[in-house]
Design goal:
With about 350 residues, the chain is an alpha+beta fold. It has two domains: about 170 residues, 3-Layer(aba) Sandwich (Aminopeptidase); about 140 residues, Gcn5-related N-acetyltransferase (GNAT) (Aminopeptidase, 3-Layer(aba) Sandwich), CATH 3.40.630.30. About 40% of the residues lie in helices and about 30% in strands. It has 13 helices and 13 strands. Strand 9 and strand 10 form a beta hairpin. Helix 2 runs antiparallel to helix 9 and helix 7 packs across helix 11.
């Protein structure tokens, strides 16, 4: 087994890396290039495993530590643990090549993880956003597990009418009420690439972050993040805009990954959003977009679970797998980690 370590994704061949990671957009070479340049709080380590058949596993670790940004508890947690996770994502930071099972590659993977943990002088390895189907393989390798917030998932039919028919009666009624409210504010929606409205779109995203208590200096991405995404992932980045008359008041970032649409960011003008049901309607328009693009499913983030359920979304389980370098510490971790986990 050949093992390669890199501090920048640019040190690794794109085609070989994507042979392992291409099924998950937030693990691809293009995505990670954007994150390295435009994500403020990201210090990556990449680990790549190859055997005689070619690439077989890829790992993304984030070693960023900051007392100012994380606070004392957050700084201590990050300083003691090696976090395996792709940046700005709800998906796992450890992937194996299609056709290879995680269980089959785990002995080699585990040897690398132990070596990396020693090199980075970390006591604990954490693997975020592990899907339920892979939990058993991590447990067999000695990892403990705990549930994380699930990811909103909607399996899409072929037509929007079929989608409506599948909703509960009360949810269809709520959608009709939201549309009537939106009409009073002259809400309408468009989807097209960035034009000269990038600054407006960025400001709307920032408004959501600040509304949730995150100051401007702590917003994770730079103003050029959106332009870079569109450049590096051409044809698969969509900006769904909501207008009240001629004013841009809402936006959803949508990313196409094979047969799935991923909608990780939403921006809102709250003065209009609350009375107009803008957030509710942006979610409905995202579903319309997914169906128009022929997508099979949509993934959203981990917030506003109740609103997403009214649109037919269900939670797809995600798990945190963790293990201490010294086995006796695992019992202590099992008690402490749930108390300090975000």
């Amino acid at each position: 087994m050949i093992y390669t370590e890199a501090r920048s994704i640019l040190e690794l061949d794109e085609a070989r890396w994507d042979a392992v990671t291409g099924n998950v957009l937030s693990m691809t070479h293009a995505w990670l290039r954007v994150m390295e340049t435009h994500l403020k709080f990201y210090r990556p380590r990449y680990f790549f495993l190859e055997n005689e058949q070619g690439p077989c596993a890829a790992i993304v670790a984030d070693t960023y530590v900051s007392l100012k940004q994380l606070g004392l508890v957050g700084w201590l947690r990050q300083r003691l643990s090696l976090a395996l996770r792709p940046p700005f994502s709800s998906f796992c930071g450890v992937m194996v090549r299609p056709g290879i099972s995680l269980e089959a590659i785990m002995p080699d993977l585990d040897a690398v993880l132990r070596q990396v943990c020693r090199q980075e002088k970390r006591l604990v390895i954490t693997v975020s956003n592990v899907e339920a189907s892979e939990v058993a393989s991590w447990r067999q390798a000695g990892f403990l597990v705990m549930p994380q917030p699930g990811v909103g998932r909607l399996d899409l039919p072929e037509t929007y009418d079929q989608y409506l028919d599948a909703l509960r009666t009360k949810d269809r009624q709520e959608l009709r009420r939201a549309r009537r409210r939106g009409e009073k504010f002259d809400l309408h929606f468009e989807t097209h690439p960035l034009q000269d409205d990038g600054e407006q779109i960025y400001a709307l995203f920032c408004e959501v972050f600040t509304r949730h208590g995150i100051p401007l200096e702590s917003i994770p991405f730079t103003p050029h993040f959106l332009v870079a995404l569109e450049r590096e992932i051409p044809g698969d980045v969509f900006f769904l805009r909501g207008y009240a008359a001629e004013k841009l008041v809402g936006v959803g970032l949508c990313l196409r990954n094979g047969t799935a649409l991923w909608a990780p960011l939403i921006g809102l003008d709250y003065e209009i959003a609350r009375p107009s049901y803008l957030y509710f309607l942006l979610m409905d328009e995202t579903i319309r977009l997914g169906i128009e693009l022929g997508m099979q499913k949509i993934f959203l983030g981990k917030t506003n679970e109740r609103v997403k359920q009214r649109h037919g979304f269900h939670l797809e389980e995600r798990w945190l797998c963790y293990r201490a370098r010294l086995s006796p510490l695992n019992q202590l971790l099992a008690w402490v980690l749930p108390l300090v986990q975000d």
